[in-house]
Amino acid sequence: MSGIITVARTLVAGALVVGLASSVWAQGDAFKSFRQLDSTAKMPKINAFSAVGSEEAYTNARDVTFDAKLTADGEVMQEGLVWRVFSPIAGEDGKLPLVASSEGGPAAFQLSPGEYFVNCAFGRAGVTKKLTVPENGDVPKQTLVLDAGGFVLNAVAGTDQRIPPKQLSFSVYAAEQKENGDRALVMADVAPNTVVRLNAGTYHIVSEYGDVNAVVRADIQVEAGKLTQAVLQHRAAQITLKLVSQPGGEAIADTAWSVLTAAGDVVNESVSAFSTMVLAEGEYLAVARNKNKIYQREFSVKSGRNSDVEVLMRDSKQVAGATSDVN
Question: 109 near 85, Cβ under 8 Å?
Answer without folding.
Answer: yes
